[in-house]
Predict the structure.
Amino acid sequence: MNIPQGKPPWQLEFLLLASLWGGSFLFTRLANTEFGALPTVGVRVAVASLCLLPLLFWQGHGRTLLRHSKQLLLVGMLNSAIPFVCFSYALLAISSGLASILNATVPLFGALIAWGWLRDRPGGSRILGLAIGFLGVAMLAWDKASFKPDASGLSTGWAVLACLLACLCYGISASYTKRYLAGLPTLVTATGSQLGATVGLALPTWWLWPAQMPGNTAWLAVLVVGLFCTGLAYVLFFSLIEKVGPSRAITVTFVVPVFAVVYGMIFLHETITPWMLVCSAVIVFGTALSLRPAAPRAGPP
């Protein structure tokens, strides 16, 4: 395979992206402790916007961003603000490994929403994959979800539902983008979504800002998750889409839990149970099956 000189192979970008998105769960949890769930996200998307805006203007997409500002604001709420807040809230009650495993169901929700909204009906094997994937989610939720509050007033049940709501929002956002923003440069969509999320969360972030200024560790965590796990990660994701296509690039969600679980075990002393491994295997298998391209129809072209 001929690799363009000076550019890393796509496999390296793939692993780097998975490691960054896996780290987002770790750094979000570290920032949550002092910032709180919503202000953590408010700072995260603002930092990501500041990271992506120079790239956007450098590539001359400023006017395109302004022309589609209303649609991008909605995408920002569906694709960044609401999901990020949901995961940020969930990480107050469940481990980063469990949250990342639930995050791997995004393609399942994406296929389901596309089926109902865009009439993108999956074939038999993809329907089977959807069923298997959601069975894995049900198995995991049945074992981990409890709606009885703990000493801090939180419950794992609401945390699991928050993660699934985030994945549902990702699925809705994907279909909305395909229907109303098709053909738009991916950098415009990503930057616009971060700006939209920043605008949408500005007032709640200010309202819920902690009374005591967060410490250096929390600030470092939220800056890392904004700059690297969001801003840089989007740039890598765009590069992967250009090199290998969107269907192949989205499979990075299968690898993200590996990094998230390892980071959680090393830095947060989280544990991974055999049942979580079984459920994650079921989810990944079902999702992979649901992403299989439809077989070509027989007959003349």
About this structure: The CA atoms of residues 184 and 200 lie 22 Å apart. Residues 1-6, 296-301 have pLDDT under 50 and may be disordered. Residues 24-290 form one domain. The radius of gyration is 19 Å.
